[in-house]
Design a protein that fits this description.
about 180 residues; mainly beta; 6-stranded antiparallel sheet
């Protein structure tokens, strides 16, 4: 596995080891010893999948408040997404900054998202599916989010307005932090 730093402290792009032959491929997507050696969280409380029917769907920008804040590992298992990570740590030098990473079934890429950052994505293909490994249990009382189009962040979505989004994600109030 190759770990690459990004412009947001603690956010890593992980390129998996992929072994290909005439049958197809085999991907090593999780090696806790390699994460632990870099001082990264290795506890996984739950694994989730998100399926998206339509190109242009936006999910996010989500996070959980303490004590249920979470580390996420995210990988596309089908299709292509424009994955966005937003720094909401007030003490961070990159507070309110964001990065985007293209995740696809073909590139086998994983993004490591530490606590204190919001996460969301826009699908760039129909039938996109993501797998999440998450370090904390889901707590509805601690679920939080910021609006995907909040001018405080200026996130640029490659396909513009979403083709599908749920009401909660579309109506979060303006960020005041």
């Amino acid at each position: 596995m190759e770990f690459r730093e990004t412009a947001l402290p603690g956010v890593l792009i992980v390129d998996s080891d992929v072994f290909e032959d005439d049958r197809g491929s085999f991907t090593r997507a999780w090696r806790p010893d390699e994460f632990r050696a870099r001082g990264l969280e290795t506890h996984i409380e739950q694994c989730m999948m998100a399926y998206n029917r339509r190109r242009g769907t936006i999910r996010g920008m989500h996070f959980q408040a303490p004590p249920f804040d979470e580390v996420k590992l995210v990988r596309a298992t089908r299709g292509v997404v424009y994955d966005v990570i937003l720094d909401l740590r007030p003490e961070s030098p990159t507070f309110k900054k964001w990065i985007a990473v293209e995740l696809s079934a073909d590139n086998h890429r994983i993004v490591y998202i530490p606590k204190g950052l919001a996460h969301g994505y826009q699908t760039l293909s129909d039938d996109a599916e993501l797998m999440y490994f998450v370090s904390a249990d889901y707590s509805p009382a601690h679920q939080r989010g910021v609006r995907y189009s909040d001018p405080a962040f200026g996130i640029t979505w490659p396909l513009g307005a979403p083709s599908a989004i749920n009401e909660r994600d579309a109506t979060y109030p303006d960020f005041t932090g």
